[in-house]
Amino acid sequence: MTFDNLGISKDIVKTLNKLGINNPTPIQEESIGFIKDGKDVIAEAQTGTGKTLAFLLPIFENIQPELNEIQALIVSPTRELAIQITEEAMKLKEAKDINILAAYGGKDIGSQINKLKGSIQLIIATPGRLLDHLDRQTIDLSKLKTFVLDEADQMLFMGFKNEVEAILKATPKKRQTLCFSATMDSQVKKLAYRYMNDPVVVSIKKKEVTLEGIKQEVVETTDRHKQDALCSVLDEDNPFMAIIFCRTKARVDKLEEDLHRRGYNCQKIHSDIQQSKRERIMKSFRNADIQYLIATDVASRGLDISGVSHIYNYDIPESSEDYIHRIGRTGRAGEEGYTCLFIDPKNQKMLDEIEEKIKYQIPRRLV
């Protein structure tokens, strides 16, 4: 299957080829045709399967640049994900010059309002900031053709159900609705079916994308000796780019401070850090100017950073699903990945749950 077969125009295919994207992924193969044809789609696919382009490509095909109206809206649960989708969309502008607005908190609303006075065809937004614009009547969704709810499970998990429903009420009844989610639980299905018209269900099974190609290991230690164990592992591995996950913001702060003192090239990211600074840190990390990104789970979903070779779970995640999301940051696009989980005796029960979920007994690493 090629992008040409899927009805993607030559200019867009040429831009994709320049970006090193030559063939569609399974989620793109399965969903682009339906989306292009205007059908409602519920798509279940993990992060890292190419789902962003699965909805962006047909949206670009269907948008009419000569119309001075908002034709497509993509809503995502976090600023980081909204920024990432915007970056992908901006790359496609070379092929088709449509006007895009990213609307998320932490950015000056005044500059967004000014931009909205011009011609905008595509908006990528977080729920809170979008509702702020709708309240101010600075965004008019009355001509909207396509609505995308990205990371729907995370959106509901973060408590955005009311916001999503309020946004949907501001859109025309005759619109195309696309719902993308890593998991299709009953809450997501309920929301999707309530607002969708005879949706096509596309499901790309997890086993294709989650743990294949990722080498997993566990280091048994104690909380007191965990930092020394981590540093031993880091010195031994010397990864190109790695993310180190901690359970809380306070743990991230402490570990970053200690690793800096030990001479490691690291930066931290969590929700208390100012948005503009988070963006600068993520840009530096993507450019490989930072070797270690120390993060809470705010970075474990939705962020697709190529080049992350290693994931270190300094603290055990709160659920087996979170473990899968965290380690899914590595082993992307056919590359090999490595992940190491540090546990102390009180974590044994959660480790058992993780191993049961992934149906694999993770080998121990001696430090």
UniProtKB/TrEMBL annotation:
Domain DEAD-box RNA helicase Q: residue ranges: 1-29
Keyword ATP-binding: yes
Cell cycle in keyword set: no
GO CC terms in record: cytosol
Domain called Helicase C-terminal: residue spans: 213-367
InterPro entries listed in its UniProt record: DEAD/DEAH_box_helicase_dom, DEAD/DEAH_RhlB, DEAD_box_RNA_helicase, Helicase_ATP-bd, Helicase_C-like, P-loop_NTPase, RNA_helicase_DEAD_Q_motif
A Pfam cross-reference name: DEAD
Motif (Q motif) on chain: 1-29
Origin: domain of life: Bacteria
Gene Ontology MF term list: ATP binding; hydrolase activity; nucleic acid binding; RNA helicase activity
Keywords: ATP-binding, Helicase, Hydrolase, Nucleotide-binding
Helicase ATP-binding domain location: 32-202
PANTHER family, per the entry: ATP-DEPENDENT RNA HELICASE RHLE, ATP-DEPENDENT RNA HELICASE RHLE-RELATED
Similarity-based family: Belongs to the DEAD box helicase family.
Name of protein: DEAD/DEAH box helicase
Species this chain originates from: Romboutsia weinsteinii
